[in-house]
Amino acid sequence: MKDTLMERLKLFLHREDNSTLVGIPASQEEIAKAQQRLNVNFHEDYVHFIRTFGGAYAGLAVYAFSNGSSLGNETVVDLTLGFREQFKELPLAEVLRTSYVISMDGSGDPIIINQSGKVFICYHDTGEIKLVADSFEVLIEENFYEW
């Protein structure tokens, strides 16, 4: 991820009044175990983010292993396995098998990163999959605003 974006995130997330928005940075061991369990490779921008902030708010909730308290306790593994199970009978099951869930929209639709690093949303009511951003970095750039 670009240094300027990471600096903006650090300034925002490390403010005292935003302490509930940032988690505990992910360890290399946690990342390796999760990738093995999910049979995926996390994109380097996502890894950079979670190794710096853990699960944190960056315009949308980005889940990792230890999230900011305002995000909840679900991990990227919990969310991915849960949505894989929920959608196992739908055409998007194949997409989810090779992707991982990093967030959800306000309706509970999973936001995923596929193996090429593109970010999609999977609409649970229609089964439609829509491209949201060409990368995790673009997703954050388009959604993150300091307040």
Describe the structure in your own words.
This protein is of the alpha+beta class. Helix content is 39%, strand content 15%. The chain contains six helices and six strands, in the order αααββααββββα. It has helices at 3-13, 28-38, 44-53, 76-86, 92-97, 136-143, and strands spanning 56-57, 61-62, 100-104, 110-113, 119-122, 129-133.
In short:
The protein is α+β, with helices and mostly antiparallel strands and 147 residues long.
Beta-strand share of residues = 5-15%
Describe the biggest sheet?
4 strands, antiparallel
Total strand segments: 6
Average of the residue pLDDT scores: 95
**In which range does the helix fraction lie?**
25-40%
Strand order, largest beta sheet: 3-4-5-6
What class do helices, strands and sheet pairing give? alpha+beta
Number of helices: 6
Q: Please provide the ordered H/E string of secondary-structure elements.
A: HHHEEHHEEEEH
Described by the principal axes of the CA atoms, the overall outline is globular
Separation of the first and last Cα atoms = 21 Å
Cα-atom radius of gyration = 14 Å
Poorly predicted spans: none
